[in-house]
Amino acid sequence: MQFRLKYVVEDVDRHGNVRLYFRRNGRKVRLRGPAGSPDFLTDYRRAANPPKEAEAQTAKVGRVVPRSIRWLCVQYYKSAMFTELDPRTQKVRRSIMERFCQNKNDGDKPFALLLPRHIRVRRDEMADRPEAANSMVKALRQLYRFALRYDLHDDNPADKVEYLKGNPDGFHSWSLAEIEKFEDAHAIGTPARLALALALYTGQRRADLVMLGKQHVRDGWLIFTQHKGRNSKPVRMEIPVIPALQRVIDATPTGDLTFLVTAFNRPFTSNGFGNRFRKWCGEAGLKNCSVHGLRKAAAARLAELGCTEQEIMAITGHTTSKEVTRYTRAASQKARAESALRRFSGEQNSDKSVPLLAGIISGGTKT
């Protein structure tokens, strides 16, 4: 007597062999043949009645437990507090919270029961990556600030968790010797040299460097709005294009809309430019240098020339002096030490006003 079992299908492979499968709800399981044999029936029963754990795991996919940490994240992503953030900030924060939710299934736990000690445990597990650990704590602080603002919770446990001590100096700041070494490896007229000059003589972040073009130059000034915070706290910049920078721009092929372009004559992305610049640094034997280190070097050089924090902030675009102080700490100490010893030796000259960026023209890059 012949009979047909439900959900059993036949497929023929490229060699003409007939293969049997159990197919149901998008799940396809191979069955041993021939049809009706003991092996076939054993495989069929196993496929038709999967283990309860597997069923529970399948049902769990895409499910959000009400009032869980993942549920709170979903509410946060829909709020104005999140949607008003820069797209890149949104992407980074989503990634951090997704990793937090996936670890040990923490995303399914009630968000109201998360305590500072729980966060400290997770933070300490990342002690070998202090910046990543601090980013996690920062993201949780923002998540629970949302919960407080929208009356979903009455406490912010992440506010009570301390940041780990990372590298106090941050990115390596280029020395004059390193700048000269880069210049020796990349002559004027190359994209690498143009990138160096733009970074050093404007003090901008890489997201701004890849956006700058001829349309931003007006009467010898670069006029633009910084990329960071442009949707929430826009910072409009006006920076003079000093002669040393103009000479490099004039001698280098540039794009139609941006000074810096790829080998395919297309604008760089921020990450793509960062990777390309590291490659240029590697070609110059500067493995420890990055484009962000030039931003610090520009601020430090301005400090050495006697510029005030407010003058330096007018170039870098910082809205508070906290980061500028960190950037220029070593330069300020050097300038104060020199001034003190000159007074001690009776050689102190009368104070002079140092024009902004004036010293960089002679002490910056080779022309």
UniProtKB/TrEMBL annotation:
Any Gene Ontology biological process: DNA integration
A Pfam family that the UniProt record links to this protein: Phage_integrase
SUPFAM superfamilies: DNA breaking-rejoining enzymes
Keyword DNA-binding: yes
Taxonomic classification: Bacteria, Pseudomonadati, Pseudomonadota, Alphaproteobacteria, Rhodobacterales
Protein name: Phase integrase-like protein
Gene3D superfamilies: 1.10.150.130, Intergrase catalytic core
Keyword annotations from UniProtKB, A to Z: DNA integration, DNA recombination, DNA-binding
Keyword ATP-binding listed: no
MF annotations from Gene Ontology: DNA binding
Residue span, Tyr recombinase domain: 169-340
